[in-house]
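Question (not urgent): is this output format expected?
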Amino acid sequence: MPGVAEVLHARFVEHAYPLHTHDTWTLLLVDDGAIRYDLDRHHHDAVAADVTLLPPHVPHDGRAATRAGFRKRVLYLDAAVLQGHLNAGPNLRDVPLRERIHQLHESLRQPGDELEAQSRFAFIRERLTVHLQPSISQAAEGSSARLAVRLRELLDANIPSGLSLADASDCLQAHPVHLVRSFSQAFGVPPHAYLTGRRIDHARHLLLRGQSPAEAATASGFYDQAHLTRHFRRYLGTTPARFAAIV
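Got this back:
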């Protein structure tokens, strides 16, 4: 996904990272245990309640703080994604931010949910910018009903092919976060959920016309039949195959 250079999930017990640097931002969640590390010659601990953000090009190491080791998830973000400096240290006690990062990891686990991942990533960037530059007002606040309608029209016109958040932003000349927020406030769901629902509707119509679940999945914009089945069951309480068989 644009802006994310690498995703890493790992568990370590005895391994200790030597002092090193990255040319990316390191956005880290600890899911189990704790990490002890030195960053720019200062001691820190990363625990499960924190979001840890390490800036590019700053030397750091890492090791388990307990005998049981640690389990972590990391997003390495392109250096251009964020601008500014850490004001209150690398460990951020921000519960909404941690939940959004967790949700982004979940949406990246399976192909086919790119719009959801991009939407979640846009909010994460906005929230991180507040921590890096709290004195700068957030851009694109408020909502616009007309902008939301225009985005809905774009999504409706691109149901099978999909629409990236960047392309929608360029087309409508609006900030990505403002786009997602305006749409959510106007219609009660974020754009990715709306698009998934429209794709489910499209797939259902194709199944009603006799297409197979695999054909309906591809024609409706899902990555494959498994991707369609996951969302179809969540929306309709049954699988496409069972729905088609009943029909």
